[in-house]
Design a protein that fits this description.
Helix content: under 10%
Strand content: over 45%
Distance between the termini: 40 Å
Structural class: mainly beta
Order of helices and strands: EEEEEEEEEEEEE
Number of strands: 13
Largest sheet: 7 strands, mixed
Length: 123
């Protein structure tokens, strides 16, 4: 069974940092692009960040560019999202995704999703 397990969410004050992890089981992450999406209450799920199979070509949404950093460790089958300078508008459930595609037309989510981890930015 393919599983993606996201962790690392929590409550943080504005300006603070969190590091999310997404560990996979049941399959090897290496052949897939990896990424993160988020969904705030009452809003649609939106793209956050993506990284290619070898850990290069990071791609970010404009709202997180310069504050978030995506990385991966294929030996550990894990994708990370380092989030710095967090803002209240970053509050959302964050989902990891594998198999996504990035093109000139935008980002398409892949077929494999994690269960989500809640990030709350509040004073």
């Amino acid at each position: 069974e393919v599983q993606l397990q996201a962790s690392g969410g929590g409550l943080v004050q504005p300006g603070g940092s969190l590091r999310l992890s997404c560990a996979t089981s049941g399959f090897t992450l290496r052949p897939y692009h990896g990424g993160w999406f988020r969904q705030a209450p009452g809003q649609e799920r939106e793209f956050v960040a993506a990284i290619n199979r070898s850990g290069g070509a990071p791609h970010y949404s404009d709202s997180v560019k310069g504050r978030f950093t995506i990385s991966r460790d294929n030996a550990k089958n894990t994708v990370y999202l380092q989030m710095n300078s967090l803002k209240p508008e970053d509050t959302a459930v964050y989902f990891c995704n594998a198999g996504l595609k990035v093109s000139w037309a935008g980002v398409s989510a892949g077929p494999y999703w994690g269960q989500g981890t809640l990030v709350t930015v509040s004073s």
